[in-house]
Amino acid sequence: MSTLVAPGTTLAALQRMALLEPVDQRILVCHALGITRTALITQSDRMLSEDEAARVSALLERRLAGEPVAYIVGKREFYGLDFTVGPGVLIPRPETELLVELALERLPPRGRVLDMGTGSGAIAVAIAHARPDAQVTALDVSPDALAIAQRNAELNGVSVRFLHSDWFAAIAGATFDLVVSNPPYIAAGDRHLSEGDLRFEPAGALTDHADGLTALRAIVAGAPACLAPGGWLLMEHGYDQSAAVQALLSSRCYDDVQSWHDLAGIARVTGGRAGTASLG
């Protein structure tokens, strides 16, 4: 049995043990004991039983080995909503909320939205939750991801149409007012793939195993066939890819091509509007 945390340790003493980042440690302790953050404070004199100490130790050791907190507890908050997550999908990140905000600003009443490569469904579900009038479609090539996304739609009480599709294959002939995507955009060999939480997340959702632009090229090329005139295409991308993505959009004659910065000041989302004429 693990002895990282000994039986008889009080919650107060446990909080003073700087084993992990304070936020990570608090989340894992609360999850292991089934208590709230408030209880962690108000029950500071509570001593851990042998079973509780073992449960806490097991979770802390998983995190010390590098496993993401979201995978350990099985959930992550995004855009004020709770999402089930697991090794089959990317962990929703705060910077992606920018994509949701930009989408909501451009979504017309009763608008039709397509989320490409939905993963956990975070983007599609967040949009559907904020705009119940919208018709939201989300697709992914991974059946496992779609199962998690469907669960998240049900968890948050929203209606989203989920499709198994390799990019545009399953939506031929459909028209949308808005297309959004957070596709794989990390280039092969990027050191970040072997660091932190990314080591545990599905590689196919992170990288195209090439220059990082393969999926972005496919989306830019295919979106005109399903975008209504004046409809927006919005894509999340890497910290150094905004110029390349703008060039892709401009080469296909999108209008109003521009990039938007996240709270860290990084150009995180780039997009453009479909013109009234067919985009070439």
From TrEMBL:
<comment type="function">
    <text>Methylates the class 1 translation termination release factors RF1/PrfA and RF2/PrfB on the glutamine residue of the universally conserved GGQ motif.</text>
</comment>
<dbReference type="InterPro" id="IPR040758">
    <property type="entry name" value="PrmC_N"/>
</dbReference>
<keyword id="KW-0949">S-adenosyl-L-methionine</keyword>
<dbReference type="GO" id="GO:0102559">
    <property type="term" value="F:peptide chain release factor N(5)-glutamine methyltransferase activity"/>
</dbReference>
<feature type="binding site">
    <location>
        <position position="140"/>
    </location>
    <ligand>
        <name>S-adenosyl-L-methionine</name>
    </ligand>
</feature>
<dbReference type="GO" id="GO:0003676">
    <property type="term" value="F:nucleic acid binding"/>
</dbReference>
<feature type="domain" description="Release factor glutamine methyltransferase N-terminal">
    <location>
        <begin position="22"/>
        <end position="74"/>
    </location>
</feature>
<dbReference type="InterPro" id="IPR019874">
    <property type="entry name" value="RF_methyltr_PrmC"/>
</dbReference>
<dbReference type="InterPro" id="IPR029063">
    <property type="entry name" value="SAM-dependent_MTases_sf"/>
</dbReference>
<dbReference type="InterPro" id="IPR002052">
    <property type="entry name" value="DNA_methylase_N6_adenine_CS"/>
</dbReference>
<dbReference type="Pfam" id="PF17827">
    <property type="entry name" value="PrmC_N"/>
</dbReference>
<feature type="binding site">
    <location>
        <begin position="117"/>
        <end position="121"/>
    </location>
    <ligand>
        <name>S-adenosyl-L-methionine</name>
    </ligand>
</feature>
<keyword id="KW-0808">Transferase</keyword>
<keyword id="KW-0489">Methyltransferase</keyword>
<feature type="binding site">
    <location>
        <position position="182"/>
    </location>
    <ligand>
        <name>S-adenosyl-L-methionine</name>
    </ligand>
</feature>
<dbReference type="InterPro" id="IPR004556">
    <property type="entry name" value="HemK-like"/>
</dbReference>
<dbReference type="InterPro" id="IPR050320">
    <property type="entry name" value="N5-glutamine_MTase"/>
</dbReference>
<comment type="similarity">
    <text>Belongs to the protein N5-glutamine methyltransferase family. PrmC subfamily.</text>
</comment>
<feature type="binding site">
    <location>
        <position position="167"/>
    </location>
    <ligand>
        <name>S-adenosyl-L-methionine</name>
    </ligand>
</feature>
<feature type="binding site">
    <location>
        <begin position="182"/>
        <end position="185"/>
    </location>
    <ligand>
        <name>substrate</name>
    </ligand>
</feature>
<dbReference type="GO" id="GO:0032259">
    <property type="term" value="P:methylation"/>
</dbReference>
<feature type="domain" description="Methyltransferase small">
    <location>
        <begin position="96"/>
        <end position="190"/>
    </location>
</feature>
<dbReference type="InterPro" id="IPR007848">
    <property type="entry name" value="Small_mtfrase_dom"/>
</dbReference>
<protein>
    <recommendedName>
        <fullName>Release factor glutamine methyltransferase</fullName>
        <ecNumber>2.1.1.297</ecNumber>
    </recommendedName>
</protein>
<dbReference type="Pfam" id="PF05175">
    <property type="entry name" value="MTS"/>
</dbReference>
